[in-house]
Amino acid sequence: MSLSGHGVGLGALIMLISAVFHAFMTLSTKQAKDMLVFRAVSMGFSVLWLSPVLFLFPFPPWGVWRYLILGSILVWAYNMLMIAAFKRGDMNLVYPVMRGAAPALAAFIAFFTLKEGLSVITLTGLAIASLALIAFAWPEKGGAPKMAALGFALCAATMTASYSVNDAAGARLAQSPILYTAWFFVLCALSLSATAVWMRRDSWRETARGEMKLAFRASFFNVGTYGSAMIAYSMAPVAPMAALRETSIVFGAVLAALVLKEPLGRRRIMLACLLASGLVLLQVGLHL
Q: What is the pLDDT of residues 225-256, one digit of tens each?
């Protein structure tokens, strides 16, 4: 598959937009009282916004459905692991590890499954970016990492890397990122809603009503971050695009400072600069 420089540049810009949306989505998840029910309700709203696509576009080819089904399973697992990690650790510990480990894993998986070659410069930039992102979660002086939270976060990163590669292949095969996105959200909404109803049972309706307002707002971020990512993946190699999406950690730190009144700190500013240098190397390596 030939990917033009123009396509890669535009894909990078779209993926940065996806990263901003992802940061807002994660902030909303952290603010939810019941994260499982919140995720289920927000997915339901997302399907509502995408419903015209289900009727106006042709039904996906049968070959695409294996990617849709596998992707929905991986995202279901990601949500369960994310919730487990958030319950055991703060967002400023869990989120950077959860997102920062994913680019290196995505590069590894894409290399073997999608046959995407990566130059030494690209790999160097990918490594720097990934290390900078993981360093966001490194304990401050005198602090101690929470092993259970980090374990769940690393498992969630594995799911992120896996569904990034799977969905990139599925969107390319479907030849329509928005069509793939619409049916993907249908499957994810069904699996998360079934899980939430089963686990909350009698309290499901009352809890869902309490999460309705926040979930409504977050649903736009759901569609925005995933839809933008699928468009970017259809235009450029998976591994560098996955790394760009992980800049959501930087945007998340800014949102935490503005909304949750958490200090950004000199350490995080330095790490953000290191991350930016890694992303520059990624783009240079792509265009050599």
A: 988 988 888 787 776 777 777 778 778 778 87
Is residue 254 in some structural domain? no
Q: Is residue 184 part of a domain?
A: yes
Q: What's the whole-model pTM score?
A: 0.80
Query: 259 lies in a domain?
Result: no
Residues in the chain: 288
The count of domains in the chain is: 1
Q: Which amino acid is at 197?
A: V
- Average the pLDDT over each of 15-19, 64-68, 162-166, 193-197 and give the range with the smallest value: 162-166
The domain of 98 spans 5-116+144-249
Asked, for residue 106, whether it belongs to a domain, the answer is yes
- The residue type found at 256 is A
